[in-house]
Recover the amino acids of this structure.
């Protein structure tokens, strides 16, 4: 349950792109070396809803007074469902929004017949890792290095549903 009544979660629209970009940029600013190169590395952020629809997924945003304060996406993965781009503004953390986003992703996975949800997270995002683990996600041994400006190394998480 979201404990901030002025926040509303809804399906994203393509015109939410600027707000999603601003949110991710602020979240990444907590981590030295994280660089958000939208046009070079994540151009899908500019048309976020269309992008997720085109890959068989869905994307949600949380807004307060027309400002995007949270977002998450989900999409089919090779052997299940993947959680993508879960971000919550600093002032809205620990108020149930992240849990609400996870519930939506997990419900979408179950509805599609998936037995689990997986995600990849930058190894620097340790607070996010604690959040995922508290809600039943297990860190797997795989890591992947992205060839990006941030020199990102990601770890893999999975939660079995049901």
């Amino acid at each position: 349950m979201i404990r901030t009544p002025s926040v509303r979660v809804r399906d994203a629209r393509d015109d939410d792109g600027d707000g999603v970009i601003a949110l991710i940029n602020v979240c990444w600013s907590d981590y030295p070396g994280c660089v958000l190169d939208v046009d070079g590395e994540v151009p899908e952020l500019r048309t976020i809803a269309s992008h997720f629809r085109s890959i068989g997924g869905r994307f949600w945003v949380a807004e307060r007074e027309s400002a995007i304060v949270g977002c998450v996406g989900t999409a089919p993965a090779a052997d299940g469902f993947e959680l993508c781009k879960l971000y919550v503004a600093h002032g809205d953390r620990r108020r149930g929004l992240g849990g609400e986003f996870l519930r939506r992703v997990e419900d979408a996975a179950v509805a599609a017949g998936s037995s689990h949800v997986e995600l990849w997270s930058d190894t620097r995002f340790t607070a996010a890792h604690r959040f995922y683990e508290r809600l039943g996600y297990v860190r797997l041994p795989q890591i992947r290095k992205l060839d990006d400006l941030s020199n990102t190394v990601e770890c893999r998480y999975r939660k079995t549903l049901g």
Q: What stands out?
A: The radius of gyration is 15 Å. The longest strand covers residues 67-77. The chain has a mean pLDDT of 94.
